[in-house]
Write a structure and sequence with these properties.
The protein is of the alpha+beta class. It is built from 21 helices and 27 strands. The strands form seven sheets. The protein has a six-stranded antiparallel β-sheet with strand order 4-5-6-7-1-8, sandwiched between helices. The chain has a five-stranded parallel β-sheet with strand order 14-13-15-16-17, with helices on both faces. The chain has a four-stranded antiparallel β-sheet with strand order 9-10-11-12. Bound molecules: NADPH dihydro-nicotinamide-adenine-dinucleotide phosphate and the ligand O=C1O[C@H](COP(=O)(O)O)[C@@H](O)[C@H](O)[C@H]1O. The site of NADPH dihydro-nicotinamide-adenine-dinucleotide phosphate (NDP) has 18 residues, from helix 10.
Length: 688
């Protein structure tokens, strides 16, 4: 079915015609290489007892017949110039000059599509010369699936098959069920009688499995029921009957093939045809962006994928798919993507055209990117796992933050994901962890890992998180930005947004003092803050060195080093840099201190653009490198730290402290820093 859908998807995307042909008496066409003898057929007699016939051609009923026929057909197609797919022998592709034709064979049924109507006609005539063929015109029915075409795409429906199943179950007159399976069903714990005739159950489920290829609405129920084929109980039979009663309510439900393709971007290497892709017997990669019309996909994911392509980091055979609810034609999708490509692409020039990527139907490695709201993560993963996971290669899923809103919801999300995926398949992404220098920053707090291997590094991260003292309310400041006028311009506050309730207590800023209770960091405060609508958009790690006791300079020269501590700064963004701010003596005969920077500004020291964090993380996920992705125990440890204080804030309805839009945040954050003898970095001179 994968090949059938892929075949139709390509035709839909390219707007190619689809034709169907049928071979009369197909098995009689096969050439027989072996010596096969048969008893004389009824009506033939011989004087010699024991006389048999030697078969020169294949016959129906002969076990070699299907193979002989297919060999003959394949040879004729190859003679015409077709290439037989290595992944699915029933698929043949031809690429001659500008003409492209694809043929899919199921025993004696052939579907044909291509970009040139007259080439299709010529090819049909050729088939007619080779075999006794029936031209059925445009494709309408294949493998029991009704195919309809409109300007919106191709629609597949198994209405007749559905009605046959309902009739066979004797439920044509039954009342339809509203859903295929009961919510909170208990089928795994069924204790009722075992079915006396499990075969009947197996046959029904087998038919439902085939039906679910065009009925995704049945997929979940059928997947559950298929788990009990070995020993079905009466409850399982009843549940299967409910599926059939559900089908009764919507026997003609169809599925559209178009959305799969209409929202895909085409291979950047657009000269590669299916033939070329198919002829390479190498691993291939599909990146499936779920939520392709959204902000994140537009701003980050597609630009990162293009940048990787331009830097030659993507494998030779790759495909990018996009799924979304919004209807978008290819042109609109191309325009959307082109508008947000990163500057590196500009440097090398855009490809001649950005066209639709092809689905070659045999792609072994699949990387799903969930760029969708969290409430549909599990549905998307279930669907990906049941219907689209790779059979031969790996399947990985990148999950975007947020990962829950507290320990409970995060654990529930992990539990649900793990119903369909192993931990190794889940790549929880927080792109800030992929930013240049953020990694170096992480190394500060943790002990040296045994190696840079993902698990060794993540083990150390978990240790740090688990050594952290649970956060107390008195060590937290939350804030919310309010409206502000500056330079004749007015900026709206958070609650001025018409979608936000006027009395909202949602923080848009948080600062916290954290402590790691281990030997290395005993007594050292870690101050963190983050917020929206601040005076600057920065991400950095600052290590402030405490002055030594007994400040000789202050005593002798009045210089207060507390106001200008030495600092090591790792600036993650913007303008990546590592710099050391040190107090030094001004050269000369006098004794005057000055504050200087030893500055390693990356843009000056290193040529070339620094890749976006999404590029690095996407590449890591493709390569199976998990070090910068969040493991479930790491996530759990992080939530355990913050959940109690979040709960307290909510229960006590703590009002966030207001701060003006574009300011340095609430004043309370400065008191918090002062309490722990720390100065926020944004008070330093490089911010002025
Ligand atoms: N934007 C950002 O910078 C960041 C976003 N994130 C997270 O990434 C995810 C996506 O964010 P963002 O792109 O901003 O969100 P958008 O709202 O811009 O896009 C969401 C995407 O999901 C699709 N979608 C929404 N609901 C459904 C549904 N019920 N069924 C199928 N598809 C659906 C939308 O399709 P359509 O629009 O066609 O309806 C759209 O393609 C969110 O979880 C967000 O929290 C995380 C970090 C940063
Ligand atoms: O996760 C997020 O990412 C976006 C983009 O961040 P950038 O600093 O890499 O551009 C950010 O705008 C958003 O606030 C944050 O939640």
């Amino acid at each position: 079915m994968v090949t059938v859908r892929a075949f139709l998807a390509v035709a839909a995307a390219k707007n190619w015609e689809l034709h169907q042909m049928d071979v009369n008496n197909a098995f009689l066409h096969g050439d027989l290489d072996e010596e096969v003898y048969m008893k004389l057929p009824p009506g033939f007699t011989s004087n010699k007892p024991g006389t048999v016939c030697r078969l020169k051609k294949s016959l129906y009923g002969l076990k070699q017949a299907p193979r002989c026929w297919f060999a003959k057909l394949a040879a004729s197609l190859k003679k015409y110039g077709f290439h037989q797919s290595y992944s699915d022998y029933s698929l043949f592709t031809l690429h001659q000059g500008t003409v492209q034709l694809n043929v899919l064979v199921y025993v004696d049924d052939l579907i044909i599509s291509g970009n040139d109507t007259s080439a299709i006609t010529t090819f049909k005539a050729y088939l007619g010369e080779c075999f006794h063929m029936k031209d059925l015109g445009f494709l309408k029915y294949f493998l029991g699936i009704e195919v309809a075409r409109s300007s919106d795409g191709i629609f597949l429906c198994q209405r007749k098959y559905t009605l046959d199943i309902i009739a066979e179950a004797g439920l044509l007159g039954a009342k339809p069920a509203g859903s295929p399976i009961e919510q909170n069903h208990n089928l795994a714990l069924a204790t009722g009688e075992l079915l006396t005739d499990p075969e009947q159950y197996r046959r029904l489920i087998g038919r439902l499995i085939y039906l679910s290829s065009t009925r995704p609405d049945l997929a979940y129920a059928v997947h559950i029921l298929a788990q009990f084929l070995q020993e079905p109980h009466e409850q399982h039979w009843d549940a299967a009957m409910r599926v059939v009663r559900y089908m009764k309510g919507c026997p003609g439900q169809d599925v559209s093939v178009t959305p799969i393709v209409a929202k895909t971007i085409e291979p950047l290497i657009d000269h590669q045809s299916i033939t070329a892709l198919e002829s390479v017997n190498e691993p291939t990669l599909s990146v499936i962006v779920v939520g392709a019309s959204g902000d994140l996909a537009k701003k980050k994911i597609f630009p990162a994928l293009f940048a990787l392509f331009y830097e030659d980091f993507l494998p030779e055979n790759f495909t990018i798919f996009g799924y979304s609810r919004t209807k978008m034609n290819d042109e609109e999708l191309r325009n959307m993507i082109s508008a947000t490509l990163t500057c590196r692409v500009d440097q090398r020039g855009l490809p001649g055209k950005i066209v639709l990527i092809k689905w070659d139907g045999r792609l072994p490695n699949r990387l799903f990117y969930l760029s969708i709201p969290p409430n549909i993560f599990v549905d998307a993963v279930r669907c990906a796992s049941h219907r689209a996971s790779s059979e031969r290669g790996w399947t990985r899923v990148i999950v975007e933050k947020p990962f829950g809103r507290d320990s409970g919801s995060s654990r529930e999300l992990t539990r649900s994901l793990k119903q369909y995926l192993t931990e190794d398949q889940i790549f929880r992404i927080d792109h800030y962890l992929g930013k240049e220098l953020k990694d170096e920053g992480a190394l500060f707090a943790m002990e040296t890992p045994v190696s840079l291997d993902a698990e060794d590094t993540r083990n150390e991260k978990v240790k740090v998180l688990r050594s952290m003292r649970t956060l107390q309310l008195q060590d937290v400041v939350v804030g919310q930005y309010k409206g502000h006028n500056n330079g004749g311009k007015s900026y709206q506050g958070y609650t001025d947004d018409p979608t936000v309730p006027k009395n909202s207590l949602t923080p848009t800023f948080a600062a916290a003092a954290l402590f790691i209770d281990n030997a290395r960091w005993d007594g050292v405060p870690f101050l963190m803050k983050a917020g929206k609508a601040l005076n600057t958009r920065r991400a950095e790690i600052r290590v402030q060195f405490r002055h030594v006791p007994g400040n000789l300079y202050k005593r002798d020269f009045g210089t207060d080093l507390d106001k200008a501590t030495n600092e090591l700064v790792l600036r993650v963004q913007p303008d990546e840099a590592i710099f050391l701010k040190i107090n030094n003596k001004v050269p000369g005969l006098g004794m005057r201190l000055d504050r200087s920077d030893l500055n390693l500004l990356y843009s000056t020291r290193y040529r070339g653009e620094i890749p976006d964090a999404y590029e690095r993380l996407l590449l890591d996920a493709m390569e199976g490198e998990r070090r910068l992705f969040i493991r479930s125990d790491e996530l759990d440890a992080a939530w355990s730290l913050f959940t109690p204080v979040l709960k307290e804030l909510e229960e006590k309805k703590v009002a966030p402290e207001l701060y003006p839009y574009g300011s340095r945040g609430p004043v309370g954050a400065h008191y918090l820093a002062a309490k722990h003898n720390v100065r926020w970095g944004d008070l330093s001179d490089e911010y002025s």
